[in-house]
Every structure is written in C-alpha cells, then in structure tokens.
Amino acid sequence: xxxxxxxxxxxxxxxxxxxxxxxxxxxxxxxxxxxxxxxxxxxxxxxxxxxxxxxxxxxxxxxxxxxxxxxxxxxxxxxxxxxxxxxxxxxxxxxxxxxxxxxxxxxxxxxxxxxxxxxxxxxxxxxxxxxxxxxxxxxxxxxxxxxxxxxxxxxxxxxxxxxxxxxxxxxxxxxxxxxxxxxxxxxxxxxxxxxxxxxxxxxxxxxxxxxxxxxxxxxxxx
Length: 222
What we know:
Blueprint: E1 10-14, E2 20-23, H1 29-41, E3 47-48, E4 51-52, E5 59-60, E6 68-72, H2 78-91, E7 101-106, E8 112-115, H3 121-124, E9 134-141, E10 147-148, E11 151-153, E12 158-160, E13 167-171, E14 186-188, E15 191-193, E16 196-204, H4 210-220
Antiparallel strand pairs: 1-2, 2-13, 3-6, 4-5, 6-7, 7-16, 8-14, 9-13, 9-16, 10-15, 11-12, 11-14
C-alpha cells in the first residue's frame, strides 16, 4: 500500500504574531516536475505584475513591483490542486479558503519592494468581502536562485533563501482577528544571478470558493 506523501521538516523562523516557517521538499517530486513543465509551456503568458489599487481595490501597476505574473488554474492542472490542498492541510484550514493561484517570475534585477498582503477595509470591499481578510500566505519556490531573490521581512531582520520546492508560510493578521500584523511587511530582493519563479497562495478567514465548498459538503453526505 502506498504511504501518504510527507513533506520535509518544519523550520520555524518566528513562533507567533507573525508565524513564519518553511518546509523543504514540500511537494512530491512528480507534482513539482509537472508544475515546472506547465510553467515553462505558458512562459509567454507572463505579464507585468500589479498591486492592489488603494482607491478601487482593483489591480494597477507600480514602480514598487517590477516582476511578472501569470495565473494557474486548479481545474487545468492537478498539481496546482495538490499544492493548494497540502498547504491547507499544513495550516489546518479548508482548501476552499484559498484564493486562486498566482505565479510570479523575477528576471535579472527584478524585485518587489516591502509590502503587506492584507486588504484595507476599502480594498476588501472589492475583493470577495464575504471571504474575510487574508490571514496566511503560502509561497512555493519553483527555482533555485543563483544569487539574490531572498524573501525579506525588514521589520524582523529576517531573510529566507529561495530554494526549489521550499514553501514559506507566514501569518498576516493577529491570531484570531482580522487586524493586520505590521511585522509581516515583506518583499523580494532583486535577482542578481539566474531567475526566480514562485507560486503565491493566499488563504482567507472564511470560505473563498462557496461553490466548491458546497460540493465538498455534498460528497460527505453521499
């Protein structure tokens, strides 16, 4: 009988408020290889990444962010669902609390200045407010970066190296509340050699995909 896949050990960087930890060898190698293959196929779909517009809650470009991004569908790629479900299990959240996946790519010199992932009260109103605030980020690195590209938390003097199949988790709000943690201000250092590709996944306080959540309930009742 095949045993369930077990990721690597949990490496704790910050215990609480914020929780920051990472896990190496996060996905089974077959799932990781499938993700890499898919990202290569869709390389031409990367566009300049945006940020949340403080006024409208929509997406806009900013000098603070110079990398590129692309979407990745759970329906089109089983490995994307494997990542979502495994990340949810680690955090003990329901997988339907997860937003859509976002693939981020940094070429030479590209970076993302320190920022917060939480919405403001104004921007949340335009971004599925019934799901509540973003409470956790899961960031899966898909490449080894030769130099640069570290994820930084400047208020905590923490840097985490980008390493293939390493997943970094960090909380965004004070435990049990929707109040933003200022200490989770984070960014990406410029890539000096090589490139950096990662998959970004945000979890909300409540169900984000109501239709999928209902399907999960129906399966239990069969």
